[in-house]
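Worked example

This section walks through a single chain of length 1493. The input is the sequence exactly as stored; nothing has been trimmed or padded.
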Amino acid sequence: MDSSGIYHTLASILASVSSSSVAQELENASLENQANLAQVLAEILRRENYGDADATKVLDSYIRRLIYDAVRDDSTMPGANFQLAVRLAHAKFLDNFVEETVGKMEELLRLGIQSHASSDDAFEVDMREFLEAHAKGVFNDTVQYSIEGQNIAELHDIVLRQLRFWNSHLLVNKTNVPSHTTKVASLLPARLLAAMGLRNQKIATASSDVLNHILNYHHASLSEYSEVFWEGICSILNSSVRVDLALKLWLGWVSAKSPIVQPTQEMLQQDKYWSLIQASLATGFSERRKYSLYILMSSLSLLRVSVNTRTLQFEPKTGEKSILTWNKYSTLIEITSLSTSPNQLRDAMPDIRRLLDASSPIPTSWMVVLIALGFSSGSGGVQKAVWEMILDLEKRQLARLFGEIEGRRFLKDIILPYGSIAGTFAIKPSQPDFCEHGTAFAKFLSTVLKVNVSTTKETALMILGFIDERQDFLFAPARLYILKGVMDGLTKQLVFDESDHMKILVKIAKVHRFTKMKTDACVAAVMRLFLNIDVAKVGLDNFLSSLTEAISIKDYLLSREYIANLGNHLKTCLAGQPMDFGDILYNLVESYKKYPPSRNDLLKAVLIFYLTLFFQEFQSPVLDVQHLIDQMQCQKEYGLRFTSIMTTNQSLFKIVQKKSRSEHTFLVVLNQYVEETEGPAYIKELAALLSGISPETFKNDLGESSECPESVLKAIEVSWSHVLSSRASTQKFELEFEQQRTDNAVIFAQCSRFATFLGAKVPTLHLGQTIETLRTYFLPILGRNKHDNIEMTATAERFLQASLQILDQCLQTCPVNQLDFFTVSEILDILPRLMRFLENQSLLRALECIRTMASRVPSELQKYIDLDSLILQLYETVDATTLRSEFISTYFGFIDIIFHPPILELARSHTGMTKTINKIALEILKMGTSKRSIKPKFSLSLWNAFIESPEVVCSSPWLVDIVVDIINTSMNVKDMDFIVDYPLAEVFNEIAPGSRDHYREYNGETEIYAQVYMFDMLSRMDESNNIQANFVKLIREKLFKPWTQNFPGMPIYVAWKKPSYLQTLVLLERFVLESEAPGFLDLIITKVLSYEPHPRYRFLLEWIMVLCILRFPENRDCIWKHLRFPENQNPKLMASLLRVGLMVARELDTSIREEFFTELVHVDVPLASSTKAIIRHQAIAMLLELWDDAVTFGFESLTSNSFFSRVYQGVIHSPYYKEYSGAKSFRTFDAKKNYSLSGIFGGGYLIGGDPVELIQAHYFTELPETPQRLISIGASSLIEIEQSQNSKVSFSRQDAEALTEALTAPLQTKAQSWDPSTLLNPPKKPSSVTSIPEPTSSDLILMASLIENPLNLGGISRVSECLGVRELVVGSKALTKTSEFSSTSVHSEAWLSITEVPVAEITAYLREKRSQGYTVVGVEQTDRSEILGHGWACPKRCVLVLGTEKFGIPADLLVELDSCVEIPQTGVTRSMNVQTAAGVVLYECFRQGNAEK
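Given that input, the structure is written out below as tokens.
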């Protein structure tokens, strides 16, 4: 009998007792007796129909105490006091309590309205308009409402308790609908909706719970409340807070059984209704998406009218088919956002593509949400699968997806950021100049821009806006690929027609924080985008100014092709309009007389100047080219700056010189300098101008004359006199004087350089004076003023650069007898004093002086005993300059010094010099792993040294380590910014077409040239030269050493083994001596091939063996003892030797070929039946070749052999051969034919397997042929590697019926199953995807302490978490930390309670659990086991015990079990894997538990 029956019986017994006496007892009773008396009193009053008012009042008072004095907790579910209050409450009490609740809620809502917005008592959501419309009682009071802080807290507590009471009452009384429930439904909903917007989370949640109970169980009491619910839900959802509460309420609203409460058809026709569902679906975690999906599907099922809004189109006539399509959409949402399996998503991709077709009833905005949710998935595999799908969409699908504003926002907010992630720009070593992701990204953007012509402008501006907004952290390569995509997508469309559009382009172009090549490539792309500007609308002058600002200091990017394209663009845009280039340029020049022009002003003039020269249409009577130049030159330093800007781009300047007939431009400015009529500003600009002019450009300026003009020689005299007079006029470093002196020194150095280039003798170029100038130069004394220090340091560096350049010219041109030891030592003694101010170019000039002396007077330089120390000091200064200059060129200078043959020759007899240059070389070489082009420069300098003096190089054994290091050069795959420069350079070449190789121009040679030069050098070494042979021997020993350390069980991948080592050994096999061959071959067989596991390494070793045997055929029998009757059979070794034997047999001399070939057949045929698969397969495959070769060579003794013939016939008629004969080549590699540079380093054997860099033939053909290579380059044996592209799946257009049929096919999903009841009635504490869920309500413990295999234990953990096990018991938690456990547990341990119970403590643990009421059941096959599925019932409180993998549950534990259960089996195998068995039993327990519920 339950408690209510007991009190009913007691009430019957005490019927003679009056209710008043019981009430009196209740008032005086102790706390523990009050509950019993109250229930008795309630039963008596119920029988008396509550006639005793005083007793009723006592009961009501007690009920209120239960409600208001209940223990405070955070639980939203009813406690014991609330449950008792619900049982005691009667109709009259409830009617009064409704009024009381309404009053308190209005009081609370009024307080929320009048509180400050930042107050904790205020509304989180603005509900004022809603309250004015539906709860006017809140605004009845005209007096300002105020309440003390303590009273506010009490008010909150009172309302919260009232709401929890109603929550309990409505939940308990689900079926009956008394009058007060109607009153609750009529008075509370509007106020509850408003309370959901309060900042107090507890009250908002409690209000939501009460509303949901009214909707779920008492909806019949609601009348015409749809409008209230709709406006309340809208108010909350529009604020983006309390969204989950609003969605839960919305779900209950659409799920209500009464049509009176459900959304009206008018509401369902509103676009806002569907857009709110869509917005909720697109945001939040999985629970919110589940709410939104169910609301969507329920709302669609309610539709009875047509809907034609922007967000939804629906026709009742085709409603059933549309609903099926929407069901498929719902499933796809589950897969993309709630699942973590990319394979499921790939299976669903055809359906997603179909939904993107025009015939699909799913609007575009919903498809945007679907795909966007895939990118928000926590699974990287899902995100990648979605990305691949988007790249693979057809044009019509892309047009639909990105044709509306939602699609463009999706592009900007999700697609562009994901496509710009640095890690996605991976480069394959076999294709270092191609970035698959970047190329596909750019092509995708280009297609998007092309497929929607009407929105091309908006899309392009949105993409450019993305670049502009993220300029500080956008991955530089992504920036370029995005710009290329826009550039390709716009082609020749004039989409930019406002000044603001040009400003965006200018801002993008002015971001210079990347490396120079990346920055310039982006600027070049922006220059191309300027050709998409409608000049007629923005104005010509404005256009030219913006273009100039975008180019700014990057005017060297201008090319003849670009000027031509720009001119054609202007002609197209300005067709029929007057072209006022002359006026613009004339006004610019005139303005210079009033206001000093900026560089951009001068650049704009240069740009117009180019256009007028290239296009006759742009010329004007006002503009005379020669007059302009003369006029600009008359502007003194401004004219010089104008000319300097023009000469920056020397390729264009050459055209200017021809077309403008402006010869002797430089002579004019030199004459003005010689006449000494100009001031320091002019001299400074002249020095800058001459510094940027090459001798070739200066010679072109002279026209047909090839003699050195007198003005040049005169300028040399004047400038030198200024240098000397300035030195005499001051006794300390004075910045202003030294700057002018430096400018004169630069003018002298450059003019001397021009004169020397023209073959003139420089009369004032005196070695002694130059040395004295450097010796007596006053170095600046740096102070505390940082700006002055920078100025002084820069001035000193420029002066030293010019002076050392002059010194180097003197050293090159003076008679050798002047370069005695005294002069050499005097020059070298000066350098340490100047070292603090030697930077970059000045340091390079110092190194050039040393190099010149080494070339002209090596014997005198050798006498200088501190030369090694001086070079080391110069090298150490580089570290001090790296932050202030481009230091790579400085390192290049040291590399040239190190490998200068005279320096190498000097090092042979100078131990200190050897150590110094070796130390410098290794340090610079170490930088080559992270700094591009250092290793190629190293290799090139060493190659040049070898070509010039091979004996000197090969007599320097310290170079061996450098050679080996360069051979080991590989693409730095860890540094994405490093390797992506190769494909970026190719993109740059495409953006700015021409003859320029941009990678080489900016960075030097690509890294692959390091190996190219080295392999080419080794190919030219002569094995007959003892010096070269000894040098190669040292190299071979170092390269082969890693393989001589092989051992049994060798791992496949070892850090110290490189494929390039063995490739080089193939190249250098010709250096193996005849006396060394037997031991070398035996070492390969017994030590190397016997243990080497890597297939490519084995192949190269086999190749080396073949080459060696072919050169020394007397060693050909070394393979037989390992093939005929080996003592210890080594399958891999035997397979290798079979291949070696076949390759050797084909190339042997005819006198010994047949004998060796016959022996090979005799060995191979028996091995075709070997028990070892690898030997058997190799032997069978070789039989085919042996027969064909026997026929080719005419070996009748073999072809007539019936046994050999029958074996051959058996092979070719086998199913294996028939299946693979057309798909697989059985021909063994031709070792001799492929022995070439291209065959070794770029051969077809490198395709597949581990990715490696391929060196194809054209790299070697670029190098000179002399001295002769001793191994040919060979033809490129590589088939061009096709750029990998995803194959497209084509889908034809389908009508709605066919589409619906296709969409009814099932799709695999792995997201957790759910239904609306679980959403409307969640567990106590609903968990988000970011929090660990509460323990399951199941009371099942799985004892797995006997399991020792972490793989099995991980699987058991996974199935336990899936099927609701409360606790998993393991023998040691250390097992759960292993990689094997994680590989099968898929992080289920994060959501599962795991307890550690060692094996020795299992018995005690089981006894303790049995004492707590658990039943202990073992999963084991015994004579008393119950059969699973045949009447066995899983106990409600159960400990399931699993046995060990091999022996099950031991006997000492079987006696501790209450029972056993076994899984019925019909197969021959007597047992299952333990994790499989656990899954079967756990599912049965899970199924039985659900059946009870």
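What to look for: Residues 786-813 form the longest helix (28 residues).
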